[in-house]
Amino acid sequence: MNVTQDLSFLALITNAHLIVQLIMALLLLISLTSWTYIFRKMFAVRAARKQTIEFERSFWAGGNLHALHQNASGNRDQSGALARIFDAGMGEFIKGKASYGSREALDVGAVLDGARRAMRAAFQREMDVLESHLAFLASVGSVSPYIGLLGTVWGIMNAFRGLANVQQATLAAVAPGIAEALIATAIGLFAAIPAVVAYNRFSHDIDRLAIRFESFVEEFSNILQRQSR
Predict the structure, then answer these.
(1) Contacts of 200 (CB under 8 A, 6+ apart)
(2) One Pfam family name from the record (predicted)?
(3) What is the secondary structure of 57-107 as a DSSP string?
(4) Where are the alpha helices (DSSP H) in the chain?
(5) Is the dihedral of CA 222, 207, 44, 119 positive or negative?
(6) Residue 68 contacts residue 59 (beta carbons within 8 Å)
(7) What angle do CA 130, 136, 140 make, to 5 degrees?
């Protein structure tokens, strides 16, 4: 056990046991990765919300659906998730109607079912993209404190083992070792707390977007049904 009176943060880390240092390094790597995903997800969710609002404004403005479909098809990467869902449904609806030779032979139910299935498939793809890395944030929030606790337990064990070579056990002798060990728990909490907060926030925002997407699928299906009559 390295006994030192320097209780600065850097000194405690450098004088910690090798195992504790490895655990701290792992937690630091997890924290950096978590923050990377947090910022990427924050920008992605913000962009998805903005694109959804813009598309809803254009859609409910009463414009031509075919023109809106062509615009969404030509700008799939920039149009947003809701526009891609609309594009999938409208495209399948147009293909379904074209597959029948005449209006008399048109099976409206089959065409609408095809369009609805296409929108549902597009909806699932968009949700998979939006929900990516959320599981990692949840894992960081739940596991990081335990990883830090493991480092703390190991450090405290090492500190008490070092007392066996000391004739008189005093607080000054054991304090540095315990302080070194507790830093691992602090770093674990530093990694976990932002991940939990971000996970809860992003889950709430994505759920709200999912509700808007599902509502649009149902409303657009009703519009297609009216146009098929």
Answers:
(1) none
(2) MotA_ExbB
(3) HHHTTT--HHHHHHHHHHTHHHH-HHHHHHHHHHHHHHHHHHTSSSSTT--
(4) 9-14, 18-59, 65-74, 76-79, 81-98, 108-130, 134-162, 171-227
(5) negative
(6) yes
(7) 140
